[in-house]
Amino acid sequence: MIIIGIAGGTGSGKTTVVRKIMERLPFGQVGIISQDNYYKDSSHIPMEERQNINFDEPAAFDWDLLIKHIHELKQGKTIQMPTYSYITSSRNAETIPLGPHHVVVIEGILVLSDKRLRDLMDIKVFVDADGDDRLIRVISRDCVERGRTPESVIDRYQKVLKPMHLLHIEPAKRYASIIVPEGGHNEVAINLITDYIKGKLAEQK
């Protein structure tokens, strides 16, 4: 099993990079784990207080569960991946079964920030993008998918996203095997990553 970590700031184009890698590999060979599904459950916290949770720092994630699940996949087991609701800021009751795949991609803003998780990865990718471009994507996404207003998104970006990006996300770039500028538009970098994966898969046959 090949484990690939894909990190980068919010709105950097990580999801597009993951999608394009999947399109270039045989159907069914790639399993996706979104780090967002591993936010700590906040259902015990009153709803009005959940809005104050900082979701852009390492402490927001259940690292132990994520790492446990990666180990189980490597052992050939099927995991029950949690799901998370941005509307209620809490973990859903539903889980997603995910079995072992030839390639497992772990995607999220901070997947390169924990050494235990990094040590399980064969390839570490950091998707880089200009701050203004990321803000535009975050506004578009959060207003459509998460029911937020442009004003609230910009306020959160200035107070939380930008400071946390500089403090936690950007420094993790130094751990990357490959840095992908321009996000999902960088076809050369995506092809290089895909070719590397294909080569590793061929070695395992």
Q: SS-based structural class?
A: alpha/beta
Global shape = globular
The biggest sheet amounts to: 5 strands, parallel
Q: Count of DSSP helices?
A: 7
N to C succession of SSEs? EHEHHEEEHEHHEH
* Global Rg: 17 Å
Amount of helix? 40-55%
Nearest-integer average pLDDT: 87
Alpha-carbon distance between the termini? 12 Å
Give the spatial strand order of the biggest sheet. 2-5-1-6-7
Return residue spans where pLDDT drops below 50 for at least 5 consecutive residues. Answer: none
Q: What's the number of extended β-strand segments?
A: 7
Strand fraction band? Answer: 15-25%
Could you explain the architecture of this structure?
With about 200 residues, this protein is α/β, with parallel strands linked by helices. It contains seven helices and seven strands, in the order E-H-E-H-H-E-E-E-H-E-H-H-E-H. It has helices at about 15-25, 45-50, 65-75, 115-120, 130-145, 150-170, 185-205, and strands at about 1-10, 30-35, 80-85, 90-100, 105, 125, 180. The strands form two sheets. Strands 2-5-1-6-7 form a five-stranded parallel β-sheet, covered by helices on one side. The chain has a two-stranded antiparallel sheet with strand order 3-4.
